[in-house]
Amino acid sequence: MSTPPEHGDDPAAVTHGGPLTPLPAPNPSGGADPFALPFWKQRGWRLAAGFLAVALVFSLFSLATRSTGAPLLETASAAGPLTQGAVDSTGRPTGCATDDGDRATPEAAPADTRWRTLGGTRVPVSATAGPTQRTGPVLWCFAHTAMGAVLAAHVVPAQMTSSNWREVTRDQVVAGFGRDLFVSQRGSLSDARLRTRENGSYAGFLVAEYSAGAATVDVLIKSPDGPYFSTSVRLLWSGGDWKVRPANDGGLHTELTSAGGTDGYVLWKV
Questions:
Q1: What is the C-alpha to C-alpha distance for residues 166 and 267, in angstroms, rounded to an integer?
Q2: What local confidence, expressed as pLDDT, does residue 270 receive?
Q3: How many Å apart are CA 174 and CA 236, to the nearest integer?
Q4: Long-range contacts of 207-215 (CB under 8 A, 24+ apart)
Q5: What CA–CA distance (Å, rounded) separates 194 from 160?
Q6: Residue 161's pLDDT band (boundaries 50, 70, 90)?
Q7: Interaxial angle between packed helices 177-187 and 165-172, expressed in degrees from 0 to 180 and rounded to the nearest 10
Q8: What is the pTM of this model?
Q9: What integer pLDDT is reported at residue 223 of this predicted model?
Q10: Strand partners, 200
């Protein structure tokens, strides 16, 4: 079943900045699975998680180059909260403050986890681990912790199927050849093409690697038919926040692989 749209969830409708805490919990009376996410098909698999749509579609194309004619990201939009250079005495962007005391590998989801729809995708958010700030469509200010990296690994890619993907990419994807290639590839696809009506669900996560400067998060996904799949998202602490670090082929995450089950993962709880 499809997740009904919720008023105010579309990032395109967000036109102002300010704190995001606390984020509202999903309406339990709606009867919808709070984990419900669109999915895309890759090599015959029926896969979950709408944020995967962009990279999975890219697998159907030959690798693009910078000469494809897509506009450069830097000239496509003005500076955002993580690119405008304004920082406070802690080195964080102005207005961003989080409790970064616990950098241990998380063994459970945050107690204050809530779910929010971004670009048609249900993602977890937390008042303590982030994102705690919103500027236009950009949800930012993640805790400088392993849990902050986990949430960024869910929130940032989730918005790449929305019409605001350029703004999000500008502020929350590490600059370089990989980002340029991602922009070129994503720019060749229509927003409507990346959306489906099928639902899957985020099932859990695993922090594969973590340091103060970088992290790799494995995301566990449950398909509508039951099998589990996993993918990895690399992140870099850059400009005072977590950003997704793309691969040289433009992918924001690795190719999906069969997970076989939930063993070893921290599970999201409804």
A1: 31
A2: 56
A3: 7
A4: 207/105, 207/106, 207/146, 207/149, 207/150, 208/232, 210/103, 210/105, 210/146, 210/149, 212/103, 212/144, 212/237, 213/237, 214/245, 215/146, 215/149, 215/153, 215/242
A5: 9
A6: confident
A7: 180
A8: 0.76
A9: 81
A10: 37
